[in-house]
Amino acid sequence: MRKNLTVVGLAMMAAAASAAEQGIYVGGGIGSTRFESNGESESKTSFGATLGYTLNENVAFELQVRRLGEWKIEGSTVTANAVQASILGILPIANGFSVYGRLGYGRNSLDVSYAKTNVSVSNNELLVGAGAAYHFTKNLSARAEYNYLGENAISSGTDDMKVKIGQFNLGMNYAF
Predict the structure, then answer these.
(1) What is the pLDDT of residues 115-133, one digit of tens each?
(2) Which of 83, 89, 103, 156 has the highest local Cβ count within 10 Å?
């Protein structure tokens, strides 16, 4: 009888701990986005927001919007943006530290504004990434990650160009 009560008690504690890990979280971050094309590269400051759901201590789902960078070129304003959906595979290490891998799908866009003319080019790409997180409390965490947003094709008339996009981000999340 005592053995059965112990097993039931442990099962209830495990269920409570698992339930405590589930939930919605929001976050924000800043980073550096690197654009590479034709042997040349340039980095821009990026920022973004995250909406996520933790299914359990090993799986989370995220939606992100990011401003990848902005340039002023000969009177034009060029901005690069991304909207992403991904799943995270999380491995808790110890004392609030965890590492994770990211697999997802993103829509990367390049918008050009000149005078009253606006042009937009978008690509849908697979994204992969890896990162590490530290939980200060049950609700507040910080993380650092690298994401590869794919090789994006940009075409204008007869000109074709491939741009590889990678990001390094630092961010904070708050779980509800």
Answers:
(1) 878 777 888 989 999 999 9
(2) 83
